[in-house]
Amino acid sequence: MRIVIALGGNALLRRGQPMTAENQRENVRIACEQIAKVAPGRELVIAHGNGPQVGLLALQGNAYDPANPYPLDVLGAQTDGMIGYMIEQELGNLLPFEVPLATVLSQVEVDPLDPAFMNPTKPIGPVYEKEEAERLASEKGWSIAPDGDKFRRVVASPQPQRIFEMRPVRWMLEHGTVVICAGGGGIPTMYEGNRLVGVEAVIDKDLCSALLARELEADLLVIATDVDSTYVDWGKPTQRAIAEAHPDDLELLGFAAGSMGPKVQAACQFARRSGHTAVIGSLAQIEAIVEGTAGTRVSTSAKLRYR
Asked: Which of 3.40.190.10, 3.40.1110.10, 1.10.730.10, 3.40.1160.10 is the CATH number of 2-112+158-306?
């Protein structure tokens, strides 16, 4: 069984937590303890978010030389290496020694005409109070948007079109390697004539994970988040957890673009285009998710059912 696991940002850094290496490693260790439970006898590919880490590196670079900031594609590559290293080490400490692990920096092609470049929506970096966010936006030319009761920087989030490193990822999977790739939605790139260049953008991690899972013909896509299922009427007395749904039914329910929306979109894309199942759920329940008894299961054979 081939499984793609897309780790939410909370698996690496919890909201409001100081962005220290120790905190990130501890969260990665907790995530890997869950992933290790479903590793035996299965082919695993792990994708992950990197928004807070990219934002931190951007701030560090700005402190060094405000006039010459590092571009987001370069910062994405740097954080993918750091996070991949932590996952490799912590998961490697839990799996048998003979199981190889590898991190692949994944260049992902986007369309230069994607309308997302005219409407930045993807949050990166730490959260700020409103006054601080407005000051930074004015000083640095950032776009900002609300994030709960705080504010964050937002950048363009174009659709992923192609993952360039698919051949080595397939080869490693076929040779028993646990692969960490498509970190942060991959490193955004586009062609200028015949030359591939980086792009100042951030690709949605869940949408890229859905593309990755389709290209790998994965049997299951697990979109891990900090809730046990997708809910209707979230936060209200009438909230209900969705056990399973057809993509058409799930999309009609409507989900916020800044939270569950991209996860639902990714799950529906994978289910429709692959014919296999995607599950949105909690990493803490990954054994039950793989067994088919937890999370919100999305497939073209399902009918809308609540828990």
From this structure: 3.40.1160.10
